[in-house]
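Posting for a labmate who doesn't have an account.
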Amino acid sequence: MSAPQPADSLVTLLGGRTAALDASLPGLAFVGVLVWREDLTTALVVAVAASAVLGAGRVLRGRPPRAALLGLLATLLSALVVARTGRAVDFVLLQLLAHGASALAWALSVWLRRPLLGLVVGGVLRQRGAWRRDPDLLRAYSRASWWWVGSYVLRSVVFVSLWAAEQVLALGVARAVLSWPLVTAVVALSWWTVRRLLPPSHPGLRHPQAPGTAPSGDAPLPTPPRPQGPDGRSRGRDDGRVRA
């Protein structure tokens, strides 16, 4: 069988750049308004409004409303934190906690032999746990999941450093650089890792293979004929005696 096709790419399955770009725009709007007017209240209002508009746009494009509501809720919580502390730099505080938790969750999932990348892709493809019974897919998803662990660790280190130094503008730039460009790179690296680790005979992400199962489309191997005696009856393989 041929190698996995481009239609199976993780870029397609995970939604491409759109979701990451939508998630980063409210933060960019917050920093932009803050730099422009130096008005914390206006910046918070614009960030929440941007998140609401983006969420409405996702719903109108046929995306699940749950994702839009979660994005709006995250922005609202961040705005409440800033309103409570009065520190603009705290707009990323919840995101810092989320990145740390995500790095831990992805690493733990690999250790438990339930890599999150497999759970995500398997869920999108409605495979339930079939991919876990495929040793090739399980190994590929486990290795590729480490790219995601590294991305969350990188974000945590950069964001915590800038947050501790109260560098609001630098945080805005870092959020832009480490949002969809980083996600796109990680998705590409994950897809490259999965393709590299799957054997050429594997039918692809959409067709998990249980151990001992012939690849889809392959004919079963013929059974070798048994040796026959002078009387034309089959002989056993072990001792050559005629079997009834």
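Reply:
Got it, the structure tokens are right above this. Confidence is low (pLDDT under 50) at residues 1-8, 216-222, 236-244.
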